[in-house]
């Protein structure tokens, strides 16, 4: 079985001395849909950047598809699609939805990057999966937050990457958009054999869709199937506040006054 990710003793300290994460030991099989859950400041984004080879760990080692991202980060980034946090992007650029999604296919090609009929067909197919087909000629800035998130996910998907890395893709999305995004990601894992690593601060919207959950608070607090890690003691440890877990229609939900921790 192909290994998606292996790490041992993986730690990262920021230049100011603050700890991002430490002692991350993982062995993940491909394909997998992994949700990395934790409050703000728990090292989630830094872990994604380390997987991509954008950040060099302080100690330990990591391999992604058997490749060391420290030495061969470009190779990892050719295999992966990345959706960064929404607030890091400029949504005022006057670009159409169609062109944003098309960027996913063009970005990994050598110049000259001329789209084909097949590329435009792939854009339409992906947009349809995410309910965006009627918005392809709209400007990105005209869309709601949830629609914009779906566009960014579509851009990553249309690249055909073996691994998708998504940083808080549900943060600005309404319930409908969250469900749409998660359903497409689950199908990529289950039907297409792709791997997805999704960072989020809230387990509730995604626990029914994902394969495994990694609870992170600068170190691994829990790892396993969602129902196994969704217990009050573990979640309270992660978020630093009292968490109540309730069952509704055969699903567990975490209840707290502050889901951001």
What share of residues are in beta strands? 25-35%
| Total beta strands | 11
Query: For the terminal residues, how far apart are their CA atoms?
Result: 37 Å
Regions with little confidence, pLDDT below 50 for 5+ residues: none
What are the secondary-structure elements, in order, as H or E? EEEHEHEHHHEHEEEHHEE
Q: Nearest-angstrom radius of gyration? A: 18 Å
Average pLDDT confidence is 90
Share of helix among residues?
Answer: 25-40%
What sort of overall outline do the alpha carbons produce when their principal axes are compared? globular
Order of strands across the main sheet: 5-6-7-3-8-9
The DSSP helix count reads 8
**Main sheet: strands, sense, barrel:** 6 strands, mixed
Structural class: alpha/beta
Give structural notes.
By secondary structure, the protein is an alpha/beta fold. Helix content is 31%, strand content 26%. It has helices at 44-51, 73-79, 97-106, 117-129, 145-158, 175-192, 226-229, 232-239, and strands at 3-13, 19-29, 33-37, 59-64, 80-83, 163-167, 195-200, 212-216, 220-224, 244-248, 251-255. Strands 5-6-7-3-8-9 form a six-stranded mixed beta sheet, with helices on both faces. A three-stranded antiparallel beta sheet has the order 2-1-4, with helices on one face. Strands 10-11 form a two-stranded antiparallel sheet. The model has no long low-confidence stretch (mean pLDDT 90).
